Amino acid sequence: MFEAFLMGVVEGLTEFLPISSTGHLILLGELIGFEGPPGKVFEITIQIGAIAAVITIFWRRLWEVAQGFWKRGTPEYFFAMNVALAFLPAAFIGAFFHSTITGLLFNPFVVACALILGGIAIIVIEKKRPEPTIHAVEQINPIAAVLIGFGQALAMIPGTSRSGATIITALLCGVDRKTAAEFSFILAIPTMIAASAYSLYKVRSELTTDGIAQIALGTVVAFVVALFTVKLLLAFIARIGFTPFGWYRIGLGTLILLALTLG
Protein backbone atom coordinates (compact mmCIF):
# COMPACT_ATOMS: atom_id res chain seq x y z
CA MET A 1 0.00 0.00 0.00
CA PHE A 2 2.89 2.37 0.73
CA GLU A 3 4.31 1.66 -2.73
CA ALA A 4 0.87 2.39 -4.25
CA PHE A 5 0.80 5.65 -2.28
CA LEU A 6 4.20 6.66 -3.67
CA MET A 7 3.15 5.82 -7.22
CA GLY A 8 0.01 7.94 -6.78
CA VAL A 9 2.05 10.88 -5.52
CA VAL A 10 4.41 10.68 -8.50
CA GLU A 11 1.52 10.39 -10.97
CA GLY A 12 -0.28 13.41 -9.55
CA LEU A 13 2.92 15.45 -9.31
CA THR A 14 4.31 14.72 -12.77
CA GLU A 15 1.30 14.16 -15.07
CA PHE A 16 0.84 17.84 -15.87
CA LEU A 17 4.42 19.04 -15.44
CA PRO A 18 6.67 18.91 -18.53
CA ILE A 19 8.87 16.20 -17.00
CA SER A 20 7.11 12.95 -18.10
CA SER A 21 4.82 11.11 -15.72
CA THR A 22 5.25 7.83 -17.61
CA GLY A 23 9.01 8.10 -17.36
CA HIS A 24 8.88 8.80 -13.63
CA LEU A 25 6.44 5.93 -12.99
CA ILE A 26 8.69 3.53 -14.91
CA LEU A 27 11.75 4.69 -12.97
CA LEU A 28 10.03 4.63 -9.57
CA GLY A 29 8.53 1.22 -10.30
CA GLU A 30 12.00 -0.11 -11.17
CA LEU A 31 13.54 1.52 -8.11
CA ILE A 32 11.08 0.19 -5.50
CA GLY A 33 10.23 -3.04 -7.33
CA PHE A 34 6.55 -2.15 -7.53
CA GLU A 35 4.29 -5.00 -8.58
CA GLY A 36 0.69 -3.90 -8.97
CA PRO A 37 -2.22 -5.75 -10.59
CA PRO A 38 -1.35 -7.47 -13.91
CA GLY A 39 -1.63 -5.70 -17.26
CA LYS A 40 -0.46 -2.32 -15.91
CA VAL A 41 -4.03 -1.82 -14.66
CA PHE A 42 -2.77 0.19 -11.67
CA GLU A 43 -0.70 2.58 -13.79
CA ILE A 44 -3.57 3.06 -16.23
CA THR A 45 -6.24 3.61 -13.60
CA ILE A 46 -4.44 6.14 -11.41
CA GLN A 47 -4.32 8.46 -14.43
CA ILE A 48 -8.08 8.79 -14.02
CA GLY A 49 -7.43 10.48 -10.69
CA ALA A 50 -5.19 13.03 -12.38
CA ILE A 51 -7.81 13.62 -15.10
CA ALA A 52 -10.49 14.16 -12.45
CA ALA A 53 -8.33 16.87 -10.87
CA VAL A 54 -8.21 18.85 -14.13
CA ILE A 55 -11.95 18.44 -14.65
CA THR A 56 -12.50 19.73 -11.10
CA ILE A 57 -10.34 22.81 -11.67
CA PHE A 58 -11.80 23.71 -15.08
CA TRP A 59 -15.37 22.45 -14.58
CA ARG A 60 -16.93 25.92 -14.88
CA ARG A 61 -15.11 26.65 -18.15
CA LEU A 62 -15.92 23.20 -19.49
CA TRP A 63 -19.59 23.66 -18.59
CA GLU A 64 -19.68 26.98 -20.47
CA VAL A 65 -18.14 25.32 -23.53
CA ALA A 66 -20.60 22.43 -23.34
CA GLN A 67 -23.48 24.90 -23.35
CA GLY A 68 -22.26 27.11 -26.18
CA PHE A 69 -19.92 25.15 -28.49
CA TRP A 70 -22.76 24.45 -30.97
CA LYS A 71 -23.17 28.20 -31.67
CA ARG A 72 -20.82 28.78 -34.59
CA GLY A 73 -18.50 31.77 -34.23
CA THR A 74 -18.66 32.01 -30.44
CA PRO A 75 -15.58 31.73 -28.19
CA GLU A 76 -16.94 28.41 -26.90
CA TYR A 77 -17.16 27.11 -30.48
CA PHE A 78 -13.51 27.95 -31.23
CA PHE A 79 -12.46 26.57 -27.85
CA ALA A 80 -14.10 23.22 -28.58
CA MET A 81 -12.82 23.13 -32.16
CA ASN A 82 -9.23 23.72 -31.05
CA VAL A 83 -9.41 20.92 -28.48
CA ALA A 84 -10.93 18.57 -31.09
CA LEU A 85 -8.32 19.41 -33.74
CA ALA A 86 -5.44 18.98 -31.29
CA PHE A 87 -6.87 15.67 -30.05
CA LEU A 88 -7.12 14.02 -33.49
CA PRO A 89 -3.40 13.49 -34.36
CA ALA A 90 -2.60 11.64 -31.13
CA ALA A 91 -5.84 9.64 -31.37
CA PHE A 92 -5.09 8.54 -34.93
CA ILE A 93 -1.39 7.81 -34.43
CA GLY A 94 -2.02 6.16 -31.06
CA ALA A 95 -4.67 3.83 -32.48
CA PHE A 96 -2.24 2.43 -35.06
CA PHE A 97 1.21 2.69 -33.47
CA HIS A 98 0.79 2.86 -29.67
CA SER A 99 1.38 -0.85 -29.06
CA THR A 100 4.46 -0.94 -31.29
CA ILE A 101 5.98 2.17 -29.73
CA THR A 102 5.38 1.11 -26.14
CA GLY A 103 6.61 -2.42 -26.81
CA LEU A 104 9.90 -1.19 -28.26
CA LEU A 105 10.65 1.86 -26.14
CA PHE A 106 9.44 1.25 -22.57
CA ASN A 107 12.80 1.01 -20.80
CA PRO A 108 14.95 3.27 -18.57
CA PHE A 109 17.54 4.00 -21.29
CA VAL A 110 14.95 5.46 -23.67
CA VAL A 111 13.38 7.40 -20.80
CA ALA A 112 16.76 8.92 -19.88
CA CYS A 113 17.55 9.96 -23.47
CA ALA A 114 14.06 11.43 -23.96
CA LEU A 115 14.35 13.36 -20.69
CA ILE A 116 17.67 14.91 -21.74
CA LEU A 117 16.63 15.77 -25.30
CA GLY A 118 13.31 17.17 -24.11
CA GLY A 119 15.07 19.25 -21.46
CA ILE A 120 17.41 20.75 -24.05
CA ALA A 121 14.44 21.52 -26.30
CA ILE A 122 12.59 23.27 -23.46
CA ILE A 123 15.57 25.48 -22.59
CA VAL A 124 16.30 26.42 -26.22
CA ILE A 125 12.68 27.10 -27.14
CA GLU A 126 12.08 29.19 -24.02
CA LYS A 127 14.95 31.44 -25.12
CA LYS A 128 14.17 31.50 -28.85
CA ARG A 129 10.35 31.37 -28.83
CA PRO A 130 8.49 34.04 -30.78
CA GLU A 131 6.75 36.91 -29.03
CA PRO A 132 3.38 35.61 -27.79
CA THR A 133 0.40 36.75 -29.85
CA ILE A 134 -2.18 34.27 -28.54
CA HIS A 135 -3.49 34.85 -25.02
CA ALA A 136 -6.57 32.60 -24.87
CA VAL A 137 -7.38 29.04 -25.97
CA GLU A 138 -10.15 30.24 -28.31
CA GLN A 139 -7.62 32.49 -30.13
CA ILE A 140 -5.50 29.55 -31.27
CA ASN A 141 -5.87 29.09 -35.03
CA PRO A 142 -6.71 25.69 -36.56
CA ILE A 143 -3.22 25.10 -37.99
CA ALA A 144 -1.61 25.78 -34.62
CA ALA A 145 -4.11 23.46 -32.92
CA VAL A 146 -3.22 20.61 -35.30
CA LEU A 147 0.51 21.25 -34.81
CA ILE A 148 0.06 21.11 -31.04
CA GLY A 149 -1.78 17.83 -31.57
CA PHE A 150 1.18 16.38 -33.46
CA GLY A 151 3.43 17.60 -30.65
CA GLN A 152 1.26 15.71 -28.20
CA ALA A 153 1.65 12.54 -30.30
CA LEU A 154 5.40 12.62 -29.61
CA ALA A 155 4.59 11.83 -25.98
CA MET A 156 4.04 8.20 -26.90
CA ILE A 157 7.82 7.95 -26.57
CA PRO A 158 8.39 7.30 -22.83
CA GLY A 159 10.14 10.20 -21.13
CA THR A 160 9.00 12.79 -23.66
CA SER A 161 6.10 14.16 -21.55
CA ARG A 162 2.67 14.78 -23.03
CA SER A 163 2.31 18.14 -21.30
CA GLY A 164 5.88 19.11 -22.20
CA ALA A 165 5.43 18.33 -25.89
CA THR A 166 2.12 20.20 -26.15
CA ILE A 167 3.33 23.22 -24.17
CA ILE A 168 6.57 23.60 -26.12
CA THR A 169 4.77 23.26 -29.47
CA ALA A 170 2.24 25.85 -28.33
CA LEU A 171 5.05 28.27 -27.37
CA LEU A 172 6.53 27.86 -30.86
CA CYS A 173 3.11 28.73 -32.30
CA GLY A 174 3.05 32.05 -30.42
CA VAL A 175 0.89 31.01 -27.46
CA ASP A 176 1.75 32.62 -24.12
CA ARG A 177 2.93 30.41 -21.26
CA LYS A 178 -0.23 30.42 -19.14
CA THR A 179 -2.51 29.71 -22.11
CA ALA A 180 -0.15 26.98 -23.37
CA ALA A 181 -0.28 25.28 -19.97
CA GLU A 182 -4.07 25.66 -19.73
CA PHE A 183 -4.58 24.24 -23.22
CA SER A 184 -2.27 21.33 -22.41
CA PHE A 185 -4.24 20.52 -19.26
CA ILE A 186 -7.63 20.67 -20.98
CA LEU A 187 -6.38 18.70 -23.99
CA ALA A 188 -5.31 16.01 -21.53
CA ILE A 189 -8.94 15.29 -20.64
CA PRO A 190 -10.10 13.66 -23.92
CA THR A 191 -6.62 12.32 -24.66
CA MET A 192 -6.10 10.57 -21.35
CA ILE A 193 -9.68 9.33 -21.11
CA ALA A 194 -9.40 7.78 -24.58
CA ALA A 195 -5.95 6.32 -23.87
CA SER A 196 -7.01 4.89 -20.51
CA ALA A 197 -10.21 3.38 -21.92
CA TYR A 198 -8.29 1.85 -24.85
CA SER A 199 -5.58 0.46 -22.57
CA LEU A 200 -8.10 -1.01 -20.14
CA TYR A 201 -10.01 -2.58 -23.02
CA LYS A 202 -6.84 -4.29 -24.23
CA VAL A 203 -6.22 -5.84 -20.80
CA ARG A 204 -9.90 -6.54 -20.05
CA SER A 205 -9.19 -10.25 -19.60
CA GLU A 206 -6.87 -9.41 -16.71
CA LEU A 207 -9.30 -7.11 -14.87
CA THR A 208 -10.07 -8.59 -11.45
CA THR A 209 -10.72 -7.34 -7.95
CA ASP A 210 -7.13 -8.17 -7.02
CA GLY A 211 -5.29 -5.07 -5.88
CA ILE A 212 -8.47 -2.98 -5.70
CA ALA A 213 -7.26 -1.32 -2.49
CA GLN A 214 -3.96 -0.38 -4.15
CA ILE A 215 -5.78 1.04 -7.17
CA ALA A 216 -8.22 3.03 -5.04
CA LEU A 217 -5.46 4.51 -2.89
CA GLY A 218 -3.24 5.39 -5.86
CA THR A 219 -6.14 7.03 -7.73
CA VAL A 220 -7.23 9.18 -4.77
CA VAL A 221 -3.67 10.24 -4.01
CA ALA A 222 -3.05 11.10 -7.70
CA PHE A 223 -6.24 13.23 -7.69
CA VAL A 224 -5.29 15.23 -4.59
CA VAL A 225 -1.67 15.80 -5.60
CA ALA A 226 -2.59 16.73 -9.20
CA LEU A 227 -5.20 19.19 -7.89
CA PHE A 228 -2.56 21.18 -6.01
CA THR A 229 0.10 20.77 -8.72
CA VAL A 230 -2.06 22.19 -11.53
CA LYS A 231 -3.27 25.11 -9.40
CA LEU A 232 0.28 26.02 -8.39
CA LEU A 233 1.61 25.71 -11.93
CA LEU A 234 -1.12 27.98 -13.33
CA ALA A 235 -0.42 30.52 -10.59
CA PHE A 236 3.33 30.75 -11.11
CA ILE A 237 4.16 29.62 -14.66
CA ALA A 238 3.98 33.09 -16.21
CA ARG A 239 6.73 34.21 -13.82
CA ILE A 240 9.00 31.17 -13.54
CA GLY A 241 8.71 29.85 -17.11
CA PHE A 242 9.57 26.30 -18.12
CA THR A 243 13.38 26.51 -18.10
CA PRO A 244 13.74 25.02 -14.56
CA PHE A 245 11.90 21.92 -15.75
CA GLY A 246 14.33 21.66 -18.66
CA TRP A 247 17.33 21.63 -16.33
CA TYR A 248 15.61 19.11 -14.06
CA ARG A 249 15.03 16.79 -17.02
CA ILE A 250 18.66 17.01 -18.10
CA GLY A 251 19.91 16.35 -14.57
CA LEU A 252 17.61 13.39 -14.00
CA GLY A 253 18.31 11.89 -17.42
CA THR A 254 22.06 12.18 -16.85
CA LEU A 255 21.82 10.49 -13.45
CA ILE A 256 19.82 7.64 -14.96
CA LEU A 257 22.37 7.11 -17.75
CA LEU A 258 25.16 7.15 -15.15
CA ALA A 259 23.33 4.61 -13.00
CA LEU A 260 22.72 2.33 -15.99
CA THR A 261 26.36 2.61 -17.03
CA LEU A 262 27.55 1.69 -13.55
CA GLY A 263 25.05 -1.15 -13.33
Describe the structure.
The longest helix is centred in the middle third of the chain and has 31 residues, at 75-105. This protein has helices spanning 2-14, 21-32, 41-57, 59-68, 75-105, 108-128, 142-153, 162-172, 177-202, 212-240, 243-261. It contains eleven helices and no strands. Helix content is 76%, strand content 0%. It has 263 residues and is mostly helical.
Keywords:
globular; mainly alpha; single chain; 76% helix; 263 residues
List the helices and strands and how they pair.
Elements: H1 2-14, H2 21-32, H3 41-57, H4 59-68, H5 75-105, H6 108-128, H7 142-153, H8 162-172, H9 177-202, H10 212-240, H11 243-261
Helix pairs in contact: 1-2, 1-3, 1-10, 3-9, 3-10, 4-5, 5-7, 5-9, 6-8, 6-11, 7-8, 8-9, 9-10
Query: Low-confidence stretches at least 5 residues in length (pLDDT < 50)?
Result: none
- Terminal Cα separation, in Å? 28 Å
Give the ordered list of helices and strands: HHHHHHHHHHH
Query: Major sheet: size, sense and barrel closure?
Result: none
The whole-angstrom Rg is 18 Å
Shape: globular
**Structural class of the helices, strands and pairings?**
mainly alpha
Percent strand: under 5%
Give me the count of strands: 0
* Helix percent band: over 70%
Determine the mean pLDDT: 89
Total helix count?
11
Concise synopsis of the structure shown:
The chain is mostly helical and 263 residues long. It has helices at 2-14, 21-32, 41-57, 59-68, 75-105, 108-128, 142-153, 162-172, 177-202, 212-240, 243-261.
